[in-house]
Amino acid sequence: MARTKTLFLLLLLLFGIPTRDCSAHSPPPPPFDEHALERVPPTVVKRLAIRFSLGAFAGRFEETPLGAVRKAVGEGTIQHQGDAAGSIYWLCYRRAQHLIWVVSSGEMGGPDHRVTEIVEELTETDAGASTDCAIIPEKFSPVVFDGKLHLGMSRQEIITALGPPSKSEAAQMVYSHAGKLAHGFDETAWLILGFREDKLVSMRGGKTTTN
User: Fold this and answer.
1) Angle of CA points 118, 120, 126, to nearest 5°
2) How far is CA 31 from the centre of its chain?
3) Are 89 and 109 in contact (CB under 8 A)?
4) Which residues, 6 or more positions from 24, have their beta carbon under 8 angstroms from its beta carbon?
5) Could you tell me the pLDDT band of residue 144, with boundaries at 50, 70 and 90?
6) Does a cis peptide bond (omega within 30 degrees of 0) precede residue 41?
7) Structure pTM?
């Protein structure tokens, strides 16, 4: 009888109590609506989402591995979600009201998980109150796409820097590019920009290359 009770208690410990690691996982990036992007004509001729920077750290979409970002920042854990073509890997960081996801598509990012997308959002409250994302040191801000685009810009400043968008609504602008590269490869790139009171408060930029 005592042995049965001991075994029962062990099972409760093993399966009934969540571990600290399970609760410490950072949240995944906001879902990407590929179908919504498909409805936006790729009107931008100039290439988009080629480069990104986190403060002094410079990287390139589809070239820089998540591990290189993690090593440079010195913080964060690479997380994984999904299977096969639908899987993603990501690093999540926070700073004051900023949430940042550095993402690699499980299919397009390759075995070394190269960065295919970055998402940054400005929350209305301190991001640390509701997330387990690692704190990113101040020297790794701001997040900038292609040496031009960063949160806080006005709608007109963005149009001056990037030209007219492929689609424009009151709270969102989308820049979409599709082009041919050498050796017949197809390149698709996007910038999805969210506004609040005419200021850029969220940006999502990414690029994929297929043959």
Assistant:
1) 145
2) 10
3) yes
4) 132
5) very high
6) no
7) 0.85
